[in-house]
Amino acid sequence: MTDIPQRTRPLRVLAAMSGGVDSAVAAARAAEAGHDVTGVHLALSANPQSFRTGARGCCTIEDSRDARRAADVIGIPFYVWDLADRFREDVVEDFVAEYEAGRTPNPCLRCNEKIKFAALLDKALALGFDAVCTGHYAKVLVRPDGTRELHRASDLAKDQSYVLGVLDDRQLAHALFPLGDTLTTKDEIRAEAERRGLAVAKKPDSHDICFIADGDTQGFLADRLGKAEGAIVDESGARVGTHEGAYGFTIGQRKGLRIGTPAPDGKPRYVLDISPVTNTVTVGPAASLDVGGLRAVRPRWCGTAPSGPGTYTAQLRAHGGESEVRAELVDGTLEVTFAEPVRGVAPGQAIVLYDGTRVVGSATIASTVRATAGVS
Amino acid sequence: MAYLDHAATTPMLPEAVEALTAQVGVTGNASSLHASGRRARRTVEEARETLAEALGARPSEVVLTSGGTEADNLAVKGLYWSRRDADPARTRVLASPVEHHAVLDAVDWLGEHEGATVEYLPVDAYGRVHPEALREAIARDPGDVALATVMWANNEIGTLMPVRELAEVAAEFGVPLHADAVQAVGQVPVDFATSGLAAMTVSGHKIGGPYGIGALLLGRAHAPVPVLHGGGQERHVRSGTLDVPAVASFAVAARLATERRAWFAREIGALRDELAEAVRTAVPDAILGGDPAPEGRLPANAHFTFPGCEGDSLLLLLDAQGIECSTGSACTAGVAQPSHVLLATGTDPALARGTLRFSLGHTSTAADVEAVAKAIGPAVERARAAGLT
Questions:
Q1: Do the beta carbons of residue A344 and residue A368 sit within 8 Å?
Q2: Which residues of A touch B (CB under 8 A)?
Q3: How many CA atoms does the CB half-sphere of A86 hold within 13 Å?
Q4: A77 and B385 in contact by Cβ < 8 A?
Q5: Which one of A144, B15, B349, B366 is least enclosed by Cβ atoms within 10 Å?
Q6: B9 within some domain
Q7: Cα B305–A65–B97 angle (5° rounding)?
Q8: Residue ranges of the domains in chain A?
């Protein structure tokens, strides 16, 4: 196992710069390592707002200016590339369609798969760049045969390998994550930015979905999909409430159900199932959220697909914990059994399989198997 | 390093630097009555006389401004307001659709906020307004035209406008014509008196002078309503303490640009021809923008459209090799937009994304042209592979 290629030879690197502190420090580190770095800010909105509202990090003109200012301080060329059309088609429309189908998408993962390490990477390679650099916290290691491995970041608390698990070997071969292999707290990254003279050192982190300016996902979906009143039912099928659109819910959701009558046992109720066809939301007790297994589609492997069943640890959502699983690829579908029941698994989210810190592959959760019985 | 973006800004002439630095440490408000003020005023007025002589105007016709943008705004908004004040029926503004944004956006603003009816004049495939088009537009209702504005030379594709003929048409109807001549000075003969224009914009940093200084040459019959109110320093149509060092330096640059104009047109024009030839040899399907006839375009401008390329990609690839040029079009939030100039000439929007403007200047050399000749072919090939995203 050798180290990542940035240590061995200078590369022509295109650094994706959101205007935030992580990607700025990543670009600075890449430049300092001797690479020939060019910064690029992705314009992802057709009608960008002038200024940030709240703690957002990628779609305003102010963010673009912050990125340019950082590039100027680092001393690298800087461009803005308009990927708004691709972003709308591949990320925003997909996000809406997934919710409409009763699933819970992860747009950041989708953006990495379709925009940063597809549209952007392809254009970068065509223009003669060797790699795309981002501020993600993850590690790429090179095997003796030259193929790549994706690992969790040294700092597990900030690890973002989950949203990169969808990348294949070719994409990883051209990815540079300068923040992934050092143990640095966010404060230390900010201190490093400060030391490097980067004005974004004090800029707040972004948490929300970048294309939903006010953070109101439900409102965004209601605007796009319209309101459609439907029934909230319990596990027996009895109507316990009304909703304004089944798409507005996520499996495992507890808040915002607005059910008037309390459950017979007085315990909180959770969203167990979303049926877009009948526009019905099923709720029930926490115990009914327990999932014993799942089926996942669109598997992608970092390297060759494993043959036969294997034992892995799995992550089921961003910032989620790890679960022991047994997984097997059957006719192109990943069939997963949990060692212990897992609570609140939402179709549409990705399952990422790990072997230790190494990402083995990922797939999109299509359906879950109740811990007790039956496919939901 | 091959700097081929002189239309954006050109290096200051050493003589202009000298004039600037000679004044920077000198105290004096040109409006003050004491000795320091008198000294400053003398510097300003001598500079004004120099500017007037260089541009074929009277000293009293030189209204100093903070640059081309302010002069354009003063001409367009100020003349609109004063003409409308004199006759409320005058609300129609005629403009070429290929104007610089300093004119275009001012005109659009009048349409959105001041009740103006904005009418864009038709242009041909070279982006040129023909006198008959202006005549047709004014003659439809001569009484309601507030002003017309047509640039002397286009900043993107270099096309020259028939300014004198246009001014004659406007004068027939008593309509004031403004021309943004920012790109024309020092490259083609610019003479305010014989142009027949009511107002004309010039800028310092495009001709080897400093940034932040320009002028509106303003016929004495015209009194535009001020955009900037205050001390009334410049003929009561422009207020603000004059930047004495910049004014002095601007005047030197204007004098030299005029004195060297014939040399510039001949020598830099020849270099431009070589550059255009080199580009066409390397990329046979490159399309020259603007008027191909040398007498119909700025001698220092070479504008090309490269089918299947994104201008931004070309810019990045050439920049990486030390060649500095421009796509020629403006950015919105840093994102290059298809040029309004090319769209006005009827160019397909997809095609309009693949443009480069090479603009030469007084420091350009054969080595600059050679650098482009060597780099442009591979750059276009690569940009085509990257495609239009």
A1: no
A2: 38, 41, 43, 48, 61, 64, 68, 77, 79-83, 85-86, 119, 122-123, 126-128
A3: 20
A4: no
A5: A144
A6: no
A7: 40
A8: 5-202, 227-284, 288-370
Same domain, B216 and B288: no
Q: What's the domain range around B37?
A: 14-259
Chain B CB contacts of A79 below 8 Å? 312, 315-316, 334
Q: How many independent structural domains does chain B possess?
A: 2
B55 plus B201 within the same structural domain: yes
For domain A5-202, give the CATH number: 3.40.50.620
Q: Which residues of B touch A81 (CB under 8 A)?
A: 312, 335, 389
Last residue of a domain, one of B211, B241, B259: B259
- One domain, residues B231 and B328: no
Contacts of B222 (CB under 8 A, 6+ apart): B79, B82, B176, B198, B199
pLDDT category at A376 given cuts 50, 70, 90 is: very low
Domain end residue (candidates: B232, B259, B286): B259
Handedness of CA B59, B61, B65, B69 (dihedral sign): negative
Structural contact between residues A33 and A201, judged by C-beta atoms closer than 8 angstroms: no
- The dihedral through the CA atoms of B132, B136, B142, B144 has a sign that is negative
Residues B212 and B275 in one domain: no
Beta strands in A108-218 (DSSP E): 131-133, 138-142, 148-152, 175-176
Q: For A196-200, B24-28, B221-225, which range has the lowest pLDDT when averaged over its residues?
A: A196-200
- pLDDT on residue A3: 47
Question: Which residues 332-361 of B have a C-beta within 8 angstroms of A?
Answer: 333-336
The fraction of chain B above a pLDDT of 70, given in percent, is 98
Joined tokens for residue B241:
């303490």
pLDDT bracket for residue A374 (50, 70, 90): very low
| B325 is a catalytic site residue | no
Sheet holding B355-359, edge to edge: B287-288, B301-305, B355-359
CATH code, domain carrying B271: 3.90.1150.10
Residue B335 and residue A82: Cβ atoms within 8 Å? yes
Q: Tokens standing for B329?
A: 């079009």
Q: Are residues B190 and B69 in the same domain?
A: yes
Query: What's the rounded mean pLDDT across residues B127-131?
Result: 98
Whole-Å CA distances, B269 to B163, B298, B361? 21, 8, 10
Query: Inter-chain contact A80–B333, Cβ cutoff 8 Å?
Result: yes
The ipTM, to two decimals, is 0.86
Q: Are A39 and A70 in contact (CB under 8 A)?
A: yes
Residue B63, SS3 per DSSP? strand
Asked whether the beta carbons of residue A64 and residue B333 sit closer than 8 angstroms, the reply is yes
Has residue B188 been placed in a domain?
Answer: yes
The Cβ-side half-sphere exposure at A102, using a 13 Å CA radius, reads 16
pLDDT tens string B230-275: 999 999 999 999 999 999 999 999 999 999 999 999 999 999 999 9
Cα distances (Å, whole numbers) of residue A276 to A222, A249, B25: 14, 11, 76
Pick the CATH number of A288-370 from 3.40.190.10, 3.40.640.10, 2.40.30.10, 1.10.260.40: 2.40.30.10
Per-residue pLDDT of A4-25, as tens digits, reads 444 467 999 999 999 999 999 9
Higher pLDDT, A333 or A182: A333
Q: Which residue, chain included where needed, has tokens 């953070």? A: A215
Q: Does one domain contain both B245 and B368?
A: no
Give the pLDDT band (50/70/90) at residue A57: very low
What sign for the dihedral angle of Cα A17, A114, A174, B378? negative
Name the fold adopted by A227-284.
SH3 type barrels. (2.30.30)
**Alpha carbon of B244 to those of A252, B50, B250, B343: distances in Å?**
71, 14, 10, 41
